[in-house]
Amino acid sequence: MGNMPKVIKGFKEETVTISYPEAIDEAGRCYLCHDAPCSKASPVQTDVAGFISRMRSRNFRGALRLIKETNFFPGITSRVSPYDEQCEAVCLHKRYGGPIRIGELERVLADFDRGSRRPYLPEIPESIGKSVAIVGSGPTGLSAAVELVLNGCKVIIYEAARVAGGVFTKGVPSYLISDDVIDHEVGSVLSLGVDLVTGINAGESINLTSMKQSFDALLLTIGMEKSRRLDLEYCKKADVFTGAEILESLKLKAKRLRLGEKVLIVGGGNVSMDAATALLKLGVGEVTVIYRRDREHMPVFESRFQMAHRSGMKIMYRTMLDGIICDSQNAISAVKLKKTVLKETEDGRVVAETVADSEFTKDADTVIYAIGQQLDRDLVDQFDLETNEMGRIKVDQATSQTSDPFIYAAGSCVERVDTITTALAKGQLVARNMVRCMLEKGGGR
Ligand code: SF4
């Protein structure tokens, strides 16, 4: 434990939303392209020219309605998804005064809806007599729930945490998005008639035989909940955390983590950068990120890297953790690091190998791992589902069914999912596959 421990607490959202007149001016710059590239680059295929056209004529409600046809969570995605790397990256206005700020326009509309007396809710169609249970209420599960309900299904979601939302509520720091936005958009899913049961450990509480009697299908959107750690020798009182733990504590204040003054974070993704930014905002004296490869290999959004960089993050490339040194109190006093060299494999991948005799030490009192997540296998083993060579749930690509055809799976428990908007698209796709399969199978309840 460090000399001046920090007790983690939350932040206020720092996102600045443009004014209505600014938004209308910005909408006025759009070419309203036919066959717009921005829509094709959007993981959920948002009709960008369509909603901007409505915005220009000050039809905010109509514009929002159009967005919500393909993205039920625009307040969230416009704050945390990398629009600059998706739809804005291909905007035809890019070379002439910069791309249209699609994300900011969506945010204005989402905030307008949230602040209105009657926030938009779509009409619910007639029941098709099918009922679905979903395990996991992250972006993929919520998005699937919306799509299933809008196709006439009855839906119940089981969530292990005490609040719904998955990465929305546990993983995105409050300085990027306020709880109000999340509560509104997650709440609007429940307003569609979706039932939610929280605080339920599916592995212990869900019996597959009774599930098969009560539902037409079960969907697993359980993400990759287990944080990876390196196999090292730790101090007895080692202050070793995971990035996910840090971010969850900030959001839910579930655990009071006491951190030191010299924090070392291992890993170069968004979780690593978000944890670094959060700790520096809390006033931690020094936060150093180590990464095995170079900047261009880091799986991080540019905006999140820049935020950590502006907050004062130090970074060491081509460096890996090799050991932890403890003091007489069995607390961390330093870390052993090694330098790496990059080599390209035959299939074009860049791998990092340690350099012989390159060991050195660095003072540190807290270590945080942000080196990726893995599948929590409890439920998978309980349901006896097949997994693939990547350790994820194996599904039929055409139907999204697992090795048990009653059980479907989607999201990061099945494949790599880089952004929240992509996770939403995966939820829509699995829901459409489920509806098609359930209707082909016939029956109903
Ligand atoms: S590509 Fe750019 S200019 Fe064209 S419709 Fe999309 S946002 Fe508008």
How does this structure look, described?
The protein is an alpha/beta fold. It folds into 3 domains: 20-115, Orthogonal Bundle (Fumarate Reductase Iron-sulfur Protein, Chain B, domain 2); 130-225 and 375-441, FAD/NAD(P)-binding domain, CATH 3.50.50; 228-372, FAD/NAD(P)-binding domain. Helices cover 35% and strands 18% of the residues. The chain contains 16 helices and 18 strands. The strands form 5 sheets. Strands 4-3-2-5-18 form a 5-stranded parallel sheet, sandwiched between helices. Strand 12 (319-326) and strand 13 (332-344) form a beta hairpin. The N and C termini lie far apart (57 Å). Residues 1-9 have low confidence and may be disordered. Iron/sulfur cluster binds at residues 30-33, 36-38, 48-49, 91-93, 100, 102.
Summed up, what is this model?
With 445 residues, the chain is an alpha/beta fold. The protein is built from 16 helices and 18 strands.
Secondary-structure topology with pairs:
Layout: E1 6-7, H1 20-29, H2 37-41, H3 48-56, H4 60-68, H5 74-80, H6 102-115, E2 130-135, H7 139-149, E3 153-159, H8 167-170, H9 179-191, E4 195-198, H10 202-205, H11 208-214, E5 217-220, E6 226-227, E7 240-242, H12 243-252, E8 258-259, E9 262-266, H13 270-282, E10 286-290, H14 302-311, E11 314-316, E12 319-326, E13 332-344, E14 350-354, E15 360-363, E16 366-369, E17 373-374, H15 377-382, E18 407-409, H16 420-441
Parallel strand pairs: 2-3, 2-5, 3-4, 5-18, 7-16, 9-10, 9-16, 10-11
Antiparallel strand pairs: 1-8, 6-17, 12-13, 13-14, 13-15
Helix pairs in contact: 1-3, 3-4, 4-6, 5-6, 7-16, 12-13, 13-14
Iron/sulfur cluster binds next to helix 2 and helix 3.
